[in-house]
Amino acid sequence: MDKNKKYNCFFEFTLDLVGGKWKPIILYYISINDVARHSELKRFIPSINERMLTRQLRELEDDNLIERKVYPVVPPKVEYRLTKYGKSLIPILKSLVLWGKDYAKSIKFDNFKMDLPEK
């Protein structure tokens, strides 16, 4: 989020925080597993490149939706968890998943590699 940006409404502000192709998927995956490492996220979202994943994780961390914990070990170990605000988004994301399932079923669309597990 750009703290100097003027937003037209709260909807625009919210989409700036969690919108886009990758952030909702990253948040949802972390919520399913409680904690996630960079390599796990990359495996779960194979179509995202390393640079974009790192950028999205940094933005989510900067916006206080996830927290990053670095362990003092070699090789480096970094884990990501949802913050209080990140956790508060999960019911909304689950609603979007259910809406998508219902819509896909109604138009008889079934071209999915996997279904996200629910927690």
Would you kindly provide a brief summary of this structure?
The protein is mainly α and 119 residues long. The chain has five helices and three strands. The mean pLDDT is 92.
Key terms:
single chain; 3 strands; three-stranded antiparallel sheet; 119 residues; globular; mainly alpha
What best-fitting shape do the alpha-carbon axes yield? globular
Number of helices: 5
What is the string of SSEs from the N terminus onward?
Answer: HHEHHEEH
Radius of gyration: 16 Å
Strand content bin: 5-15%
For the report, how would you describe the main beta sheet? 3 strands, antiparallel
> Can you count the beta strands?
3
- Average pLDDT works out at 92
Walk across the major sheet and give the strand order: 1-3-2
Protein architecture, described:
- The structure is a single chain.
- The chain has 119 residues and is mainly alpha-helical.
- It contains five helices and three strands, in the order ααβααββα.
- The protein has helices spanning 10-18, 23-33, 38-44, 50-62, 84-106; strands spanning 36-37, 66-71, 77-82.
- A three-stranded antiparallel β-sheet has the order 1-3-2.
- Strand 2 (66-71) and strand 3 form a beta hairpin.
- The protein is globular and about 50 Å long.
Write the layout of secondary structure elements.
Elements: H1 10-18, H2 23-33, E1 36-37, H3 38-44, H4 50-62, E2 66-71, E3 77-82, H5 84-106
Antiparallel strand pairs: 1-3, 2-3
